[in-house]
Design brief:
304 residues, alpha+beta, OB fold (Dihydrolipoamide Acetyltransferase, E2P), Glutaredoxin, 2 domains, seven-stranded mixed beta sheet, five-stranded antiparallel beta sheet, 5 helices, elongated
Length: 304
Amino acid sequence: MFRKFNSSPHPAIFCLCAVLIFSAACNRAPSQPGSANSSTAKRYQLKGKVVSIDKNAATANINNEPVAGFMDPMVMSYTIKPPSTLDQLQPGDSITADVVVQPDNTYWLENVKVTAHSPTPADKPAATVHIPSPGDEVPDFKLVNQNSQHTSLHQYRGQTLLLTLIYTRCPFPDFCPRVSHEFAAIDRQLRADPVRYGKTHLLSISFDPTNDTPKVLRAYGFSCAGTKDPALFAHWEFSAIPQTELPEFADYFALTYKEEGGLITHSLSTAVISPDGKIFKWYHGADWQASDLLQDIAAAHSAS
């Protein structure tokens, strides 16, 4: 997954900045954190500064200095091992760590040490983040899809709805391209099962409505699915949440996002919504695969 990036540091982003030399394809296979095999794993020495922390996902965004033999200076999201290390970190801390890289390009940070603490204390959260829980009623959020049609979440009642949040410019393979890759796999498998296909609907929702116009979403959908057949959108739609509804929408689905300099820092959020319009299961981050959501579909159908 690793390519050579622009050598100038950039602001913190979960999705790497748009100046990355590579363009992440939606059909690229994901990599997941694993356990190091000392005989095959490579280790690199990292120095950098903590930009932000996501304890739920056990990750931190690090603005790293050049890592010899591995990458240029850049902001990158790393899984931290053990996760308890995150309790000792706060944004602004300078750190050293070992980057552990497996042959399958799985990577994470170990032996994280704080070399200088942030000059200012970490801000306290202004409010508790809402976490979608099973049985929660999903509001009837309004959307605009790839065909410029105005839709809303309640119109999918009677079907099991798989919903994930993306933005099309995200170039980091382990974020939006990864969830779009998994949704493409789900769509293909459901097409092979006409019964389940008719009882489900997939919805990729952009939280970047200014840039993700219907035309952009349409092209993105075709790219992710590897087809130019408009029939794709009968089962898998690509929509944007209007700017006026974005704050409430983001709060409900525990989406954190921040736009800075044309780039977006964001978390990941994927929900399985049962036919009665209630949360069946919610996933934070990208620690799920197509097989997990396919099992959720079966369970949601059985429960309805």
